[in-house]
Amino acid sequence: MSAVTTPxxxxxxxxxxxxxxxxxxxxxxxxxxxxxxxxxxxxLVTSFKTMDEIQNGNMLALPKAPTFDPWLKAWGETxxxxxxxxxxxxxxxxxxxxxxxxxxxTMLGALNGYVLTKWRFRGATLVFGLMLFACFIPFQSVLLPxxxxxxxxxxxxxxxxxxxxxxxxxxxSTVNLVFVHVVYGIGFTTLFFRxxxxxxxxxxxxxAQVDGASFFQIFRRIMLPNSMPIFVxxxxxxxxxxxxxFLFASAYAGTGDAMPxxxxxxxxxxxxxxxxxxxxxxxxxMIAALPTLLVxxxxxRYFVRGLMAGAVKG
Amino acid sequence: xxxxxxxQIKLTxxxxxxxxxxxxxxxxxxxxxxxxxxxxxxxxxxYGFILWTIYLSFTNSKTFPSYVITGWRAYQRLWGWTFDxxxxxxxxxxxxxxxxxxxLYILICLALGLFLAILLDQKIRGEGMLRPIYLxxxxxxxxxxxxAWKWFLDPGxxxxxxxxxxxxxxxxxxxxxxxxxxxxxVVIAGVWQxxxxxxxxxxxxxxxxxxxxxxxxxxxxxxxFQLYRRIVIPLLRPIFLSAFIVLAHLxxxxxxxxxxxxxxxxxxxxxxxxxxxxxxTFKRNEMAVGSASAVIMLMxxxxxxxxYLYSELREKPR
Amino acid sequence: xxxxxxxxxxxxxxxxxxxxxxxxxxxKGGFLVLVGPSGCGKSTLLNTxxxxxxxxxxxxxxxxxxxxxxxxxxxxxxxVFQSYALYPNMTVAGNISFGMEMRGVPAAERQKAxxxxxxxxxxxxxxxxxPSQLSGGQRQRVAMGRALVRDPKLFLFDEPLSNLxxxxxxxxxxxxxxxxxxxxxxxxxxxxxxxxxxxLATKIAVMRDxxxxxxxxxxxxxxxxxxxxxxxxxxxxxxxLIPATIGTNGNALSVVLQREAREPILxxxxxxPAGLSAFQGKPIIFGVRPEALTDPEGAERNAxxxxxADLHIEVVEPAGSDTFAVTNLGxxxxxxxxxxDANIQPGTVTPLAFNLTKAVFxxxxxxxxxx
Lengths: 314, 318, 371
Fold this sequence. Notes:
With 318 residues, chain B is an all-alpha fold. Chain B has helices spanning 22-57, 73-82, 90-120, 127-135, 142-153, 159-165, 182-207, 211-219, 224-235, 237-253, 256-262, 273-283, 287-313.
């Protein structure tokens, strides 16, 4: 829609009304921009202040003597529960969890979308509907059975470890989280790819069939090379969701060394022992937010597209 | 969604082919074989687990799952708590909070999102800069959002303190520490996080409206206000529906934000049903009650989502 | 034995029967056009020949070999798609040689084949480009190149010209006709455009609702439509199909056409088809093509049966090469085709000549031709 242009007015007073309108609009927009930016701004400036300045200064003031110490402390020294080695280990935990989970769920979503659009079979819509609904369930309704299963698998892993010396990753919290995120992520990735491939010309697949390409050859040579945009969208969406997850992380890796970043951050902030170091907390929060913020800054367009695709179904 | 029969490739035979070899039959089944693992995973880990949770809600599970059916006990307890208002039970608090939070969160996000989208649609210079500013909170974890707002709303450190320093010493804002108002701070932080995204949805909707309709309405003499009220907003109906679904679903799932922002609030006064479920299942050793609350959450979502998905996936007439 | 034979082909999808027993055959080097309105099953029929859709029953044979159950790539066919279906991620050369690559043809041989086809279609300078860098006509050529390079027994074209603009469509139509003439290949061609059908085909199958309405040479289809549908569908402007009754004029039959506010027109039929006598006093549909309704000077001199009538002209459309005049007969607009320089004015009453040797008659109840 082209923006509504106020019809030209004859009276000279009309110009003034128009100007005032514009000022009001820009004023409101700027005000809301402040509302959205404020928390990030406060977090950022606080993370560069000394504790002294925080207790005696103004929340909104820029740091008088900017210091990088809170960041270093958050990264390498601060206490998460009883261990005081910073959040760096947990940051890597998150990376180790996110990368395989995103890659596996995206690949499965691509294959599913390909089958559901280009190799339809009777009942395909039902299959898709069931997978799609899985995106919307409150995870509380599967939380407990999954915990039970992961617990049994963990005990089996210990048995394996004792008898043959390796547990094949069974019972490893990071592996568990990768599995959980793949399971509850394929609904979304399938939705993304299905909607993209729905609009993908079926004639290309027919042409490739006439050319003698097999099921997988068509996928690899025709579909994949032309799916770059939806790949970016899906990867970003999954990355953001999995990185930001707290529920699964706290339920299945809420304690111990495999804790992901979000759980660690929550523990840092809620540690009640000693003086609360707000600057360190804010630096830790910034570090936890950086990967997704970075993705947002670099590929915001795809980020929005992913959100939209996740919101507008069918 | 096009399911035009004539455009479908269908390699699976409808009748047995006498000459088809094992190999070619395998080729025919390949698409289904590829889809099968994902589908099986969904059936087992989503639908199977839901059934399992429903089963548990009818047992007397405490710390560990028990498989002895004891009937509606867990639900009866929840039902009883629903009317326990003095002092309020955790369940009463959770569902009242859900009502307050859900209503305000959805309403404010829709109103603010639409308002911002309309403002941004007035040929604004710098739109490309403003849009990402409104939208970035959606990229943040609820935990980070919670930490930031916790600081900002803290009476001793944040907004109240700042205004005191600027000389407005009578200003008083301690909702985050007040058991009657803490849920409203969750609304503030939630709206801050999601309203930009709703704005983006509405903006996309506005940009999708045929410009000629607008021109026609202007020629018909509609004022800008009338134009939006009579033409534009009715045309955005599908967006309202999508946005409502997204927000309702986010609201019912909200868990992290309450934990990070309020740690549950004074005496659990900020709990939502999701927090109730987590606490009762994993901390208070009332697994059956926790499961029953999860089932109630699921049913709420089902009531909202299923009609929507059904209408979206129904074979649309060409 | 014909080169392409289709016997009793049926295709059912759920409860819906999309193809209801198709029987067609085509000689080697023939050009078969499947034409009909959208949804008539013509594209489905083409897809079943290609093997892109299964059939429920029936048989398809090419050069004596039954190909029903073969994979598309094993049927020795090539196909040109409506959207051209060029792989966007590959160059023109890659597109043309993809099929050979899939069959494991060595690179050197592929290159030779690409060069040969590029020369025939004059696309040598485009070989390293991506499809997105080509114009519509160039894409069309590449799509044909991809088909040609296979040197198949049978070419299948699925509305290949429908995405081109009017002028390019005419050029490419001529190009396809030339290609057919020089290479002598056998072609099955789907279109909804009856002009393409008339100009290209050696055989036309007019389809509706999964059935072949008429199968014959373009001239047969045009001059001797078997039913109302074919008569209406083929030809542009369409045949005038006028509700009329059959009267007697002494021994001979005559066609009675009603007019508004004037006495009916009586057209005496000197050589009426035998079946028409059974319709005396009954309603029929009288079909006459616009070029058989013209100014008396422009009428065909050697036609044996010409009747002239004064008609009230409502609209005149000068189209450059011809002038069309619209009148009203039997409650319907009727188009007459006149010479470009015919002097005719709307609102006047002008004598026009019916060439009754070209007239056809249909039974309104069955919609079939009265012969």
